[in-house]
Amino acid sequence: QSALTQPASVSGSPGQSITISCTGTSSDVGGHNYVSWYQQHPGKAPKLMIFDVSKRPSGVSTRFSGSKSGNAASLTISGLQPEDEAEYYCSSYTAGSALFVFGTGTKVTVL
Amino acid sequence: QVQLVQSGAEVKKPGASVKLSCKASGYIFTSYHIYWVRQAPGQGLEWMAIINPRGGSISYAQKLQGRVTLTRDTSTNTVYMELSSLTSEDTAVYYCARDGASVADTLGWYFDLWGRGTLVTVSS
Fold first, then answer.
1. What is the DSSP letter of A62?
2. Which of A17, A38, A77, B78 is most buried by a 10 A CB count?
3. pLDDT (tens digit, 9 = 90+) per residue, A11-37?
4. Among A22, A50, A99, the residue to mutate for chain B (most B Cβ within 10 A)
């Protein structure tokens, strides 16, 4: 099972909006709404930011939003803040024996 | 306090096995599936396995089939992950994480609660 494809890096200035893409196939991202996003700061465990494509857990800022079109999902961070600088991973349930797949990860830099 | 507490760091020689623990507290242990995910140094996340603490059903990532074993102890609310025939490529931080679906025997396919991770170093 191949990993979902994400851009290696995305950057933006404080206050700007950025979007991270997550491209899969009809067996994973395109075939289900079990897409989630995680934020990981260096040396820390990942933190859930979005689940079921676009749902935000309690406590996660409304600046984070998710969407999906076809085989690609996206995470948008609006009003970028310095604390948003981190690695971001998408993930999806996948049909077949693999069950689950992560994205390759995207380093977000706040300029 | 709702949390997953993982065991401490391990150093193992190639060919050895390692058994890590993940103790749940603050919620009903049997109501949520537990995953194991690992992350090699400087690398991304890799799903390893999932267990239903309620009935004990388990699924393993194909890549690790035959080398990884999950068990659980419902008396101590603990899940164990054993990885055998270790090589340097198994050097990683190993996380346990809880599935977000709160209905027993169902899956949300996302991780809403994570342990802090356990570093396993495989070196001769």
1. T
2. A38
3. 999 999 999 999 999 999 999 999 999
4. A99
